[in-house]
Amino acid sequence: MSDLTGKTIAVLGGTGPQGRGLARRFATAGLSVVIGSRGAEKAEQVAAELAQATGGAVTGAANADAAAAGDVVLVVVPWDGHKELLTDLKPALAGKIVVDCVNPLGFDKQGPFALQVEEGSATQQAAAILTDSTVVGAFHNVSAVLLEDPEVETIECDVLVLGDEREATDLVQALADSIPGMRGVYGGRRRNAHQVEAFTANLIAMNRRYKAHAGLRITDI
């Protein structure tokens, strides 16, 4: 937690289930959180609800303002809006650690499946766009249902953290470690992000079959 002292965590797409859940957990851990959304009003409403629920420091703003306010910025938006949002926010994200949490997935009658991404993965696409930022991939395989449930005190899973800059991946691992039960584990360089993002399709299929909220645990580390 020492690496996170004084840092503000911005969550772009923080009004959706995954972003809202992560914001809840970070606020509960005592971190300063800014929720971003397309509209400031919705972000402010969700922030007020989370601040009341957690007793934490949570504010809301439009995505561009949230990006500017954050020291570490999580991208938790739908895949179809990923490229456009990051292109628009490139200036605001310059010099920051950007954590891409997006899973490029499709759904059909047979269930979830991984989409092909020209750059290789959402994390690699973010790095290609945000050339003035340090991009890390993380939080791809965590259940939004568990994150949002105030009755669940610990999230028992590992978070694979992918990146090329050791200082940044260490910081994002510490961010994962701030959530009780969760552990940040270095998972390789950005070029290895595809299979981590794609594995979310497998987890969704498992959860549907077993009526569960399965996550990952890495053994022998």
From TrEMBL:
SUPFAM superfamilies registered for this protein in UniProt: NAD(P)-binding Rossmann-fold domains
Oxidoreductase among keywords: yes
GO biological process: one example: copper ion import
Keywords in alphabetical order: Oxidoreductase
GO CC entries: plasma membrane
Keyword Oxidoreductase: yes
Annotated transmembrane regions: none
Domain Pyrroline-5-carboxylate reductase catalytic N-terminal residue range list: 8-104
UniProt signal peptide: none
InterPro entries per the UniProt record, alphabetical: NAD(P)-bd_dom_sf, NpdG, P5C_Rdtase_cat_N, STEAP_metalloreductase
GO molecular function, one term: oxidoreductase activity, acting on NAD(P)H
PANTHER family linked to this entry: DUDULIN-RELATED, F420-DEPENDENT NADP REDUCTASE
Protein name per UniProt: NADPH-dependent F420 reductase
Organism: Nocardioides jishulii
Upper classification of the organism: Bacteria, Bacillati, Actinomycetota, Actinomycetes, Propionibacteriales
Recorded name of the encoding gene: npdG
